[in-house]
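Researcher: Sequence of indole-3-glycerol-phosphate synthase follows. Predict its structure.
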Amino acid sequence: MVKICKILGLTALVEVHDEREFDRVLGIEGIELIGINNRNLETFELDISITKKLLEGERRKIVHEKNITIVGESGLFTPDDIAYVQEAGVKAVLVGESIVKQSDPGKGISNLFGKDISQS
Ligand SMILES: O=P(O)(O)OC[C@@H](O)[C@@H](O)c1c[nH]c2ccccc12
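Model: Prediction complete. Tokens:
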């Protein structure tokens, strides 16, 4: 699928939830974008330390060597949450609840990042 996306001019975002899935996806030839979902899809529990756990040690090295972009997904509500996943090695975020629940999405984004990022 990653290859087909590339032919079509797309980059596939492949989502993982645990070490086993992450290791499998890290082995895909040409993988560029991996999302770490902090939500357990069986229990719907959120835990952003999953991102940190998955990006420790050897895996972080592989991510760096292969120039893979890691997307932090789910459970991000505050600037501290963003800083935490960024520190872990995340370069992009996938955010739903903390923005869509605001009446003004722009303000929701500013609150999430602790500043107005619309010009940066
Ligand atoms: O509402 P949250 O906790 O900010 O989560 C958003 C997003 O990460 C989540 O909805 C999601 C994770 N993986 C996805 C894949 C497709 C669409 C949505 C998603």
